[in-house]
Amino acid sequence: xxxxxxxxxxxxxxxxxxxxxxxxxxxxxxxxxxxxxxxxxxxxxxxxxxxxxxxxxxxxxxxxxxxxxxxxxxxxxxxxxxxxxxxxxxxxxxxxxxxxxxxxxxxxxxxxxxxxxxxxxxxxxxxxxxxxxxxxxxxxxxxxxxxxxxxxxxxxxxxxxxxxxxxxxxxxxxxxxxxxxxxxxxxxxxxxxxxxxxxxxxxxxxxxxxxxxxxxxxxxxxxxxxxxxxxxxxxxxxxxxxxxxxxxxxxxxxxxxxxxxxxxxxxxxxxxxxxxxxxxxxxxxxxxxxxxxxxxxxxxxxxxxxxxxxxxxxxxxxxxxxxxxxxxxxxxxxxxxxxxxxxxxxxxxxxxxxxxxxxxxxxxxxxxxxxxxxxxxxxxxxxxxxxxxxxxxxxxxxxxxxxxxxxxxxxxxxxxxxxxxxxxxxxxxxxxxxxxxxxxxxxxxxxxxxxxxxxxxxxxxxxxxxxxxxxxxxxxxxxxxxxxxxxxxxxxxxxxxxxxxxxxxxxxxxxxxxxxxxxxxxxxxx
Length: 526
Description:
Blueprint: H1 4-10, H2 16-45, H3 47-70, H4 90-123, H5 130-163, H6 165-185, H7 199-212, H8 252-255, H9 273-290, H10 300-308, E1 313-315, E2 318-319, H11 326-351, H12 360-391, H13 410-434, H14 442-469, H15 487-512, H16 519-525
Antiparallel strand pairs: 1-2
Helix pairs in contact: 1-2, 2-3, 2-4, 2-14, 3-4, 3-6, 4-5, 5-6, 11-13, 12-13, 12-15, 13-14
């Protein structure tokens, strides 16, 4: 992913606006399909089969992508991407997009299922240290994720830049082959939990039944007139979003189709109070969820293009790969989170009376401000880079290396890392505290959906900016020749939108009030 914008620009001759939109769409598809993969595994196929399908889909997609680098006939040909050349025949583009689609399907199947499938193997052990073993598994799982991210942003990117796309795409395909085969070899030893029920199905059922019962009148707050789960503490639905309460009204016709334990045999005709309240809790947090969408809009592809034109020597003759700068953000995040947890939280507990540190909403707001600062810094640095390129006579040479150190890009990624450390973690925690414990796994799904929405917004924004700013034959802000374009204006636009989004967050935060279970903490913060 980090270097893909260079491959699309140089080998597929795509304008950077189109290439960036393609990458945004590709990433969004992977995130959305993660929700579909979770639904498919929970409701129908089970985790093993979904992971197996995803593994071989990823392998096929990576292999096809590698083939586009191996055979010149599978790519368009032109002397330079700066000339007016076609970005490939329909067949060539179809092969590229098909490979990306298969990789997205693979990611959508593997990401949501792999951690739970591993936990399934450990939960069958009836030993006293099972809980400790499970904690250790989760720690090592996320450690492996972090290590793989570092390898992807450093080793793989370095190989692509210095050894070419043939090896750069071939190595991930080979690793995916080893992964898929090793996973299948474990088939005789796996515990495979049968699929049961999905929360997504429950939400749809509540909506359907509420529509069916839309003509009914809501009864008084009498628990006898509502269906409850036999072990639920919820007796009557809340007054908010009352239209959904009609889904759990007892209807005489449905009583006869109830099971002996009191549950309804046809969930598409009758829902319980707990199901209705689960959907309500999801809908209540959507406004706060929406405040993070714009913050998540990435600028990685543009930063790669900027770094590619700057002096990337760090020490001796070693050059930092242009696609490795997200590694700075990852490392910053990895440092800030433990520092906050181990140093700031005790200090806040001691001097401010906040035993758990800042509340979720406070940290979300801090993160938004840091991201706005990062975008503003990007605008300033790009202005400096563009001016330097023009002054040094490289206005028409977008691949020329200018006399400006790539270290100027470090501050914006550090600020982005700090923003991610505060905002992303706080958002997941906020989702977790505001939804029922039975939906706790859905908190991460909401975050994944937010990433998908951010990539869709990013793609639309790039397309709009490119079309609007190129009206009348003007040079687009997001021109393929970034020395003639105005990425600095684009970053400034993102900064302004980020500040507007922050004001929107403040309004939502005030309207929402303290989240459940944190009212005392909120009072202390005030």
